[in-house]
Amino acid sequence: MPSAHYQPLELRADDNDEDDLLEEGLLEHCTIETDVQPNGRIRYHPQPVDELRSIGGMTAPRFSRAASSGMRRFLFVTLILLPICFLIYFVISPQSQDSEDADGDVDPHNGIGNTIGIALNEPLHICSERYEDHRLYIDDKPRSAYAQLPVIYFVTPTYPRREQIPELIRLAYTLLHVPRLHWLVANDREGCDNFLDMQLNGFGIPYTHMASPMPREYRKVKPAPRGVANRRAALQWLHQHNLTNGILYFGDDDNTYDLRLFSEIRQTQRVSMFPVGLIAEYAISGPVVRDGKVVAFLDSWVAGRRWPVDMAGFAVSLSYMSQYPNVNMPYKPGYEEDLFLRSIGLRIEQIEPRGKNCTEILVWHTQTKNKKSAVVRLENRFMDERSNLGALFRLLERMGVARASDTEGLLATISKNGKSKTHSYFLN
Ligand code: UDP
Ligand code: MN
């Protein structure tokens, strides 16, 4: 999902090495701070200098006495500023431990502190769900043959547009091959879509269909946080069901999934990762693996992300995730994966590389062209049972694909033997 079209986050002062900021003249702060930490690496939060001065009592006449009185003043200011700086560091920056990794590298991006305010507490609007598996056979074996496998919770954000139903049908026919899977379909719209209910019910796969609209304030933002409200709702559903067993995977409605992916992720102990094809400039994103261990990441858009991976490039075991009550996916376009993985305390040495040590591509970030739903000029008086067209256009309209109109849209061409004739010629 992240790609080069996202703007990197604006750096906060605490996102950079202190020295860099001082060099660039971006940071002015009390010199005593470097005395506070022996390693000299303090993460500063920008404070207007005037504010700091007034906090420090600098409104008194300046340095007009002897050196000893200056010294006393300096100590006085220091004593007042020291606790304030501590307060800023430890209280206002709760994620401060997140800024350095095991190698001691300061991480340039730490966005979670800005967004953690919106803790996961989504109102859930379930449209329909079914827990029984109605498939008798899955890949030529009776369903009972798979009873011991952990369940894969496959989370699909989706939203109304003319490609929605075809995308979900295509995905459903992939998922029909996968045993022990619960499909969480979270639809980005206000109310329930009865047509989607009917479709999902027809596939026979256990599923939960929920309405999870993007909050209005984010719709106006460009780029918008696509699919975040949906995934947050799904995380809330998992939390509410107290699930501590099974595997979570975020599978968008427009990706292409190799069936081997499902057997690979089913073994996930904590977090597994694997390459995703067709991501951004390199057409690939994924871990770099040496001696069976993930050592780095290949992705054309880093932007300070500690985990520069695609949403489809990892799976998480629920037994691991349930240990992190602050699991979150903030509304921060481009940083959803990174901040989600940070919220579950991932460490690089814990990552399980999949797909023959990340040499296979088991999922593709295919994208479908979006178009506005079509309007076809076709008289309402012909939309009856004299022909198939009435039923066809009613179905297309329920799917959000197209509608017929008496007055708007492109005039429908109806032809025979290569010649078009009036509508009434065929339909009257
Ligand atoms: N999505 C959504 N609401 C939107 C746009 C997208 O729920 O307004 C879903 C979409 O169906 C997909 C996921 O969020 O499953 C990612 O969106 P998209 O595929 O458009 O983004 P990309 O893969 O190009 O980053
Ligand atoms: Mn997509």
TrEMBL record:
Keyword Manganese included in the entry's annotation: yes
Topology of the protein relative to the lipid bilayer: Single-pass type II membrane protein
TM ranges: 74-92
Keywords, comma-separated and alphabetical: Glycoprotein, Golgi apparatus, Manganese, Membrane, Metal-binding, Signal-anchor, Transferase, Transmembrane, Transmembrane helix
Keyword Transmembrane: yes
Catalytic machinery residues: 337
One GO CC annotation: Golgi membrane
Catalytic reaction equation(s): 3-O-(beta-D-galactosyl-(1->3)-beta-D-galactosyl-(1->4)-beta-D-xylosyl)-L-seryl-[protein] + UDP-alpha-D-glucuronate = 3-O-(beta-D-GlcA-(1->3)-beta-D-Gal-(1->3)-beta-D-Gal-(1->4)-beta-D-Xyl)-L-seryl-[protein] + UDP + H(+)
Residues at which Mn(2+) binds: 254
Molecular function GO terms recorded: galactosylgalactosylxylosylprotein 3-beta-glucuronosyltransferase activity; metal ion binding
Annotated metabolic or biological route of this protein: Protein modification; protein glycosylation
UniProt-listed Enzyme Commission number(s): 2.4.1.135
Subcellular compartments: Golgi apparatus membrane
Source taxon at top rank: Eukaryota
Glycosylation sites: 357
Gene Ontology process terms (BP): carbohydrate metabolic process; chondroitin sulfate proteoglycan biosynthetic process
InterPro entries: Glyco_trans_43, Nucleotide-diphossugar_trans
Family to which the UniProt record says this protein belongs: Belongs to the glycosyltransferase 43 family.
Protein name: Galactosylgalactosylxylosylprotein 3-beta-glucuronosyltransferase
Native organism: Drosophila hydei
